[in-house]
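Provenance and format

Records in this collection were gathered into a single text stream. Each protein contributes a sequence line and a C-alpha cell line. The two records reproduced below are adjacent in the stream.
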Amino acid sequence: MGIFFGSTVALNKVGCGRGCMVYACDSEELLTTMSQEPVILNVYDMYWFNQYTTPVGLGVFHSGVEIYGQEYAYGGHPYPFTGVFNINPRDCNELGEQFRFKESVVVGHTDFTEADVKRIIYELGKEYRGDRYHVMNKNCNNFSSDLVQILCGQDIPSWVNRLAYFSTWVPFLQRCLPGEWLTPCVLQNSISQQRQSSNNSSPSNSLS
C-alpha cells in the first residue's frame, strides 16, 4: 500500500447526469437500494500525547476514510505531488508506532462505484498535495471531511478535527509536532519510491 496516484481519467461522476430522473422519484426503497456501500471514518489516537490531554478536553487525532476495502488518508511532505495514500483499513503498523486505532464511525452510504471512488481520490490528490499540508486548515481530517462530503454528503464528527481548533490558539504548534505526525510511515516509504523513480527517469534528476 502507499501513495495514491490513481488514474489519469477525468472525474466524470460529479453531476447527477442520467441519474437525475432516478433521484427525482419518490421511491425511498429505490434510493436505499442504490446506496449500498458504507462510508466509514477510521479514527486514530496520537496516543502518547492524548493520554495527557484527553482528560482536559483536548485530543489529537488522525483519520482516514474506508470504502471498498481500502482506507484513504492524507499526510504532509515537502514535494509538489499528492499527499493522499491508501492502506489496509485500520492497519496501525502501516501508519507508525505513534498511531493507535481508536474507533470506526459509519458516516453514511454511497452509490459511487469503486472506479468512481478512485477517480474522486485522484482528483482530490491534486488539491491535497504533500507540500500544501497545514495543521490547521489542510490536514488529514480536512481531507477526510471533503471526501466524505463528496461520497455521501455527510459531515465527520467535529471532535475529530479538534487539533485544527486548538492550533488557532497555539500558532507555532505545527513546528512543534514530530514529523511522523504529518508523514505516516507508509507515506514516507512511498515518497522515497516516487523520488527514486523520478530520478531514474529524468536526466536532470528532478521531480516530474
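Adjacent record:
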Amino acid sequence: MPRRAVSCVVRRSESMFVPHPMPFACRYRVEVEALCKIYRKLVANASLNSKALAASNPGVIAKAGSSMDGIDRSVFRELLHSTFDIVTEETLMERIFCAWEKGYEGLPIRLEGWLMGLSTFLKGSQAEKTAFCFRVYDLNSDGFITKDEMFALLRNCLIKQPQDEDPDEGVKDLVEIALRKLDMDKDGKDYQEAIAEEPLLLEAFGQCLPSDRATMSFLSTLQA
C-alpha cells in the first residue's frame, strides 16, 4: 500500500516564540552602542548612494516613502556576505531578510529589529536560533515546513547533469531523507524537538546563520 503523501512535515512549537527574557540591549551595553553606530553608518551610506544614483539619473523618480527608514535588502545581503560569510542562493537570502524582524517582514530593518536580530545571530540560545531558522524555512509563514517548501529550498543544492531524465529526482530523494529525519513518526513533530534530538539538522535546508569564526570576528570589532 503506497504511503500517503504528507503535506505538513514539521510544525512550529509555540515555545519557540517566547520573547527573550533579557534583550541584547540590556545585557551588552558596549556592543549595543557599537551596533547602533554601525546601523546609522549603513543607513547613511545607503541614503548617500541613493541620492547619488538619483542625481546621475535625472529621469529616475524616487518612489514615495523610499527614503531610508532602515537597512534595505541590498545593504543587508551585502552585509551577510561580506561580514558573516553567508554565501547562499537567492531564495534563502530573501528569506533571511524577511524573517529578520518578526512583524516587519519584507520592510527595511529598523534599529530595534537590527539589535534583536543580531542578538540571535551573535549570542542567541539554541532555542532562539531554532526559531529563526524555522521562520526562514517556512516560506509562506503558515507555521509548517512542507515537502514543497523543502523541495524549493534544496533544489539549487545539487548540480544537474544534462543527461538526467529527471534532474529533480535527486532533490526529491533529499526531501524524503529530510522528512524521515525530521518527522520519523509522521506525527507532525515540531521543529524544535527534531533539532533538540539532532542539532546538526538546524540548517538542513541551507545556511542562514553565521559561522563561529565569523561571529567571533565580528564581536571582536565591537570591542575595538
